[in-house]
Write a structure and sequence with these properties.
The complex is a heterodimer of chains A (713) and B (501). With 713 residues, chain A is α+β, with helices and mostly antiparallel strands. Chain A is built from 20 helices and 27 strands. Chain B is of the alpha+beta class and 501 residues long. The chains are: A alpha+beta (713), B alpha+beta (501). The interface between A and B is large, with 101 and 110 residues.
């Protein structure tokens, strides 16, 4: 009895405590927000067009400058993609009229200061961050970097090394791949807003290009400077006038980035990334501009559609279905060129189609389900109540005013935006969704491992997926000259090749070669680790070849008979017919063989074209490109300038480390049946040794047993 | 060791003439005077810093619990609970609490049955597994009917919250947000409620979200893959070796009872600190804290982790064969943050690998161009317990891990064999000072730093003594710690080597 009473009491108390808390939260009344004055930014324009914005803030002994430069990668030629970025980087690192780049590093880091520069698609920038006791150092470095960069070649080379490393690493993360390819799909692969830096575009950039880009665009009429922190307004203005007042105006009036042409379509794309542990999904289409008349409606629409917890995309895809950690979306409005609308999620590969469908459905609800009261509260009250956070940092305020001024927006643009949001209704959000979101004309991009998807992408109802190729185009050899097929080079190419054949035993000796058998020990070198392998090969010229590779106790066989080929399936161990791609690659390999090439001298099989001179492994060589009847160069042979022997060849090929520029160098020539062949071959990929190949047994014209070249069953 | 170039010297001299900067001392005491502290009877500590420039305030709830405290078979639990703390309370997040609690009990019992069957492995009854999974999923859907999704967030958000988030580390868990300052009482009411009466709703499906978080932040990220294997190799006993997010199998093993037991042990007021920085009145903050947090009963502070990592007996090397481009990283065991040697190790790491004038950047990036990026830092994966100093290099295209590794050791040997110049040491201190002052800018940054100083040293004033610790470091200290800790025997190395997938 007593027990029962206690239980009842406990339950009663519990119920009471619930009501108490409930009432408490509803009962809380909020005092009026303390009055505060929105600080006023002072604006000054110099005679040369440079604009200065000032907002002092004495709370901490810090001094900041943000520079906005009206230039960007949209101004660089497409075949020199990377130029704008390199220019900005080397302005800071490549030295100035007074200091070397290293000296600037020492100067700044010795006082814990930073001055940095950057360049994006339609906007460049620089910033200074110093303790206010070092204002003059910060200003001096900024002036030197903007006005007097000297672009030391050594620092251009360093920036190029870093750019090339970025290229080599750009497929390491799915999110990076998805964003890059998404921009290409929205703006078009040729658009300056979707430009991708390649090894080839970097190869086209010279120091003169950087000097010219700087000389043309980094000019006072293109520069705005926002100053914040602990400084004296009068003194800073005097200093800035002294440092920048005599800078001559350039000729950049009316620089406007190009418009966007968008191909509206309903289409699905995918990029294969075999090792992806998650699929990355982006869905959407072209977006809009800040100046659009319904911009305020879209602020509320965005909060409801995909702006974090409480938004439709996040609540459904993350919270309710548990399909993603990051799920959301936004209709992006830019200042200068249209942004894009996107929804995004990354999910277990086994949920790819499920998540994509869920995302599409949530986007569709924006047309069919008007916002609820709670959603309007999130969108409107959230915006209005957090409005004050636009004014809690002087640095942000002055930077924003600088940006508004550039785009011709009034200083009180935010107040206008706020007034707009106050007026937004449920109907307005629904209308804005119908006007701006087109769920039936969206593009979808999936990056991931398609073998692990829950269903084929076709099943989404967006048509057959189109593959997006993300392979990184390989760099060309450092010394590779532009191939020019003309009489002079044809004559010289043939001459070098003929001398090479002589040096290896002469045409007659090569004509007699019908078979070659070899036993080879191989070392595969990957990141400092060596893997020993054994190889045996039989060649029946011109087209038949068999190779047995002994890989740590397992045998891999490949057989090429004319235009057919077979190889071991590494999973089952069975000999299976090669795919057409593998056959083609096997034929290419055969076509590059030294004996095969020498035997075909003077036949219409290829043309030998002189392709410049260089050095391989310290040996000076003359390069001869072998060009087929389609005008394509399928191999480059390097001949020792001194003795005429075949010292090297280079080509684009596949290794376990991926695709790259392979260079084979040959040494230890020995004679067999009248021809001299190298016993040691060393292979480098992109300049790094990946394989060593040593012949232990070699015979020419030895009979080959019939079963070696029997057609595999 | 670093010799300033003559021209640079001249240039600095010219600047000095031109500018004649006033040498001034920043008045830390002035800032200290704006901070107040109050401790509730239940042990909760409240720190307030007044800043009246704008009518906003930032809030931090700092809990002295992290990945190191995860129970066996439930790695990642500290992080899991952090997610659950956003799911609401008895009042917030539900449309019928009684029906919901009943539905949650059904979820729990079905999960216990399902888990027991799954643990039988290949001997499990496959029909029963399918039935249980179906019933379990139905129970989750049923419980979901009573959920008002993300209501806890929504209330804050529509009241103007920005930057609402939380972070779990190996050592601590922090819940953060900023609000217009007139919403102080709302924060007190809501924040206290989630730690007074949390309802662990939607827990079983949230495990999938955490699984995706693991895939996204760890499995799909080559740097994190390398660092994860580095720390699990360096730590064989101490929980610093286990990732914060936990093992995937443990994530799928979580039960609501386990999460609740974890909460009850660690989320006690004596183990928590709240910090408020902004346009608030400290007396009002303390009064509201009494009102909303004062009724949480006292419970003793949980004990720290007892396990001590044994001394490493020789170099450990691990190779990750991976489709990504090469990464090299190495780590050495060093003492915890409060140890007297820690500032010297920090100074050494600054000089070794931070910034364009550091030894590693100058050698590997600028001169030899064998790395695209380098870095070094002290105190990973945590700093409450003896931890690691870490150095990494991202080889430039066509360059390799061994080339980078060789040069890293050459620079570390240099620090053992050559004494830094007085100027070098001064520059390290100048950087520390600038970094410290920049760290005072934001309200949120300030609140986080005050709370962690209070937690680590038992006194928030330690935050302003931090520079004194760095300023006491000498060139001899740096050389000594280099020799003492940066030995081959004490080292763990990871190579991420590229292989085609």
């Amino acid at each position: 009895m007593l027990k029962r009473t206690f239980l009842l009491c406990a339950m009663l108390l519990w119920a009471l405590s619930l009501t108490a808390t409930a009432q408490e939260i509803d009962k809380i009344t909020f005092p009026k927000l303390n009055e505060f004055e929105i600080p006023k930014v002072e604006k000054i324009q110099l005679d040369n067009g440079m604009r200065i914005y000032l907002l002092p803030d004495k709370t901490l002994p810090l001094f900041n400058i943000s520079v906005r430069i009206n230039a960007g990668s949209w101004l660089e030629p497409a075949d020199k993609a990377g130029l704008a970025d390199l220019t900005a980087t080397v302005m800071r690192t490549g030295g100035t009229r007074t200091w070397s780049g290293d000296e600037i590093d020492e100067l700044l880091e010795g006082i814990g200061a930073a001055v940095e520069t950057n360049m994006q698609d339609v906007e460049g920038g620089a910033f200074v961050n110093v303790l206010s006791e070092y204002v003059d150092t910060g200003l001096a470095v900024l002036t030197e970097v903007l006005r007097y960069p000297r672009f030391d070649q050594e620092k251009i080379d360093l920036a190029l090394v870093q750019q090339r490393s970025n290229i080599s690493r750009r497929n390491d993360e799915v999110g990076d791949i998805a964003l890059r390819e998404w921009r290409k799909l929205v703006y078009g692969p040729e658009s300056p807003y979707a430009r991708t830096v390649e090894y080839a575009t970097l190869d086209n950039i010279t120091r003169e290009d950087l000097v010219a880009f700087h000389g043309q665009y980094i000019k006072p009429e293109n520069i705005q400077i926002a100053v914040s922190g602990d400084f004296d307004k009068g003194k800073i203005v005097t200093k800035l006038k002294k440092l920048f007042g005599d800078w001559k105006r350039g000729s950049n009036d009316g620089l406007t980035p190009p418009p966007v042409t968008y191909d509206w379509r309903k289409k699905i794309y995918y990029a294969e990334k075999k090792d992806a542990k998650q699929s990355y999904i982006r869905i959407g289409h072209l977006g809009g501009l800040v100046k659009d008349p319904d911009y305020a409606d879209k602020i509320v629409m965005n909060a409801i559609l995909g702006g974090g917890f409480g938004s439709r995309l996040t609540d459904e895809v993350r919270t309710r279905l548990g399909l993603a950690y990051s799920a959301g979306g936004r209709y992006v409005s830019n200042f200068s060129y249209p942004g894009y609308f996107f929804a995004v999620a990354s999910t277990d590969p086994g949920n790819t189609v499920k998540a994509t469908r869920a995302m599409i459905n949530e986007i569709k609800t924006m047309h069919t389900d008007p916002p609820t009261d709670m959603e309007m509260q999130k969108g409107k009250d959230g915006y209005l109540n957090s409005f004050v956070f636009n004014f809690d940092s002087q640095r942000e305020i002055v930077n924003r005013i600088m940006s508004f001024d550039f785009y011709g927006l009034p200083e009180n643009f935010l107040d206008m935006e706020k007034a707009g949001v106050q007026e937004v209704t449920k109907d307005a959000v629904l209308a804005a969704s119908k006007r701006n979101l087109f769920p039936d004309s969206m593009i979808i991009l999936v990056v991931g491992d398609s073998s692990k998807f829950d269903l084929p992408l076709d099943s989404i109802g967006w048509g057959a997926p189109e593959a997006v190729d993300i392979a990184i185009p390989a760099p060309k050899a450092a010394d590779q000259a532009e191939l020019q097929v003309n009489d002079a080079n044809l004559g010289k190419g043939k001459e070098i090749l003929a001398r090479g054949i002589e040096a290896h035993g002469g045409m007659d000796a090569f004509a007699k070669v019908s078979t070659v058998t070899a036993t080879v020990t191989l070392k595969l070198i990957m990141n400092g680790q060596e893997i020993p392998l054994g190889l045996k090969s039989w060649q029946q010229l011109p087209d038949n070849e068999k190779t047995e590779l002994n890989a740590m106790g397992r045998m891999m066989v490949s057989v090429m008979l004319g235009d057919k080929g077979w190889q071991t399936n590494p999973q089952t161990g069975a000999l299976e017919a090669m795919s057409p791609e593998d056959v083609a690659s096997g034929q290419e390999d055969n076509a590059r063989g030294t004996i095969r090439v020498f035997q075909a001298f003077n036949k219409p099989y290829y043309q030998a074209v002189y392709n410049g001179s260089g050095t391989v492994a310290g040996i000076p060589v003359d390069w001869v490109a072998l060009v087929n009847d389609k005008g394509e160069s399928f191999a480059r042979f390097g001949f020792n300038t001194a003795d005429g022997t075949h010292a090297a060849q280079s080509y684009i090929g596949q290794t376990p480390l991926g695709e790259g520029l392979l260079t084979e160098t040959y040494s230890d020539l020995r004679e067999f049946g009248g021809i001299k062949m190298p016993m040691v071959t060393s292979v480098e990929m992109n300049g790094q040794k990946v394989m060593e190949h040593k012949v232990s047994e070699y015979s020419v014209n030895a009979p080959i047993a019939a079963e070696v070249f029997a057609v595999p069953q | 060791m670093k010799r300033t170039n003559l021209w640079l010297g001249l240039a600095v001299a010219c600047l000095a003439l031109l500018a004649a900067p006033l040498v001034f001392a920043f008045d830390y005491q002035k800032i200290e005077k704006t901070v107040s502290k109050h401790t509730l009877a239940n042990g909760l500590r409240i720190l307030v810093m007044e800043r009246h420039e704008a009518p906003v305030a930032s809030f931090v709830t700092y809990c002295d619990v992290g990945g190191v405290d995860d129970p066996k078979e439930y790695t990642g639990m500290a992080h899991m609970f952090e997610h659950m703390a956003f799911k609401g309370t008895q009042m917030v997040g539900t449309n019928d609490i009684n029906a919901e609690l009943a539905a949650m009990r059904v979820e729990d019992s079905l999960f216990y049955l399902l888990r027991a069957e799954r643990k039988k492995g290949i001997l499990a009854d496959s029909t029963r597994l399918i039935e249980l999974e179906k019933a379990f999923n139905e129970a989750i859907d049923k419980a979901n009917e009573y959920v008002v999704a993300n209501e806890f967030d929504n209330i804050f958000e529509r009241n103007g919250a920005v930057g609402m988030n939380a972070g779990t580390g190996m050592d601590q868990t922090s819940y953060i947000m900023s609000l217009p300052s007139n919403k102080l009482e709302l924060w007190m009411a809501m924040e206290s409620a989630r730690f007074k009466e949390p309802v662990l709703r939607e827990m079983y499906r949230e495990r999938n979200v955490i699984g995706e978080e693991r895939r996204q932040t760890l499995e799909n990220n080559p740097i994190m893959r390398a660092i994860d294997v580095l720390k699990s190799t360096a730590f064989t006993a101490h929980p610093y070796g286990i990732s914060i997010v936990g093992h995937m199998s443990d994530i799928n093993n979580y039960t609501r009872d386990a999460a609740k037991a974890f909460f009850e042990k660690y989320y006690v007021p004596s183990n928590m600190i709240i910090a408020v920085v902004g346009d608030v009145d400290p007396q009002q903050v303390f009064q509201l804290a009494e009102k909303y947090w004062g009724d949480i009963p006292y419970s003793p502070e949980p004990e720290p982790v007892a396990t001590v990592e044994p001394e490493q007996q020789g170099e450990r090397r691990v190779v990750l064969e991976d489709p990504a481009q090469p990464i090299f990283a190495a780590a050495w065991h060093i003492p915890e943050y409060t140890h007297p040697d820690f500032p010297a190790v920090q100074a050494m790491m600054d000089y070794l690998g931070q910034g364009r004038t550091s030894l590693l950047y100058k050698n590997l990036v600028k001169e030899k161009k064998i790395a695209a990026d380098v870095g070094s830092f002290a105190g990973y994966p945590g700093s409450k317990y003896p931890t690691l100093a870490l150095v990494y290099a991202m080889p430039a295209a066509e360059k390799s891990n061994p080339e980078c590794e060789e040069q890293v050791y050459i620079e570390i040997e240099r620090l053992k064999n050559e004494l830094l110049s007085a100027e070098d040491v001064e520059e390290i201190k100048a950087r520390a000072k600038a970094g410290f002052i920049n760290g005072l800018v934001s309200n949120l940054g300030m609140a986080s730093q005050l709370a962690s100083a209070e937690n680590d040293w038992g006194d928030w004033r330690a935050l302003f003594r931090e520079l004194d610790r760095i300023n006491a470091v000498t060139a001899e200290d740096i050389q000594r710690v280099a020799k003492q800790y940066f030995t081959k025997n004490n080292r763990t190395v990871v190579y991420l080597n590229t292989v085609q997938s």
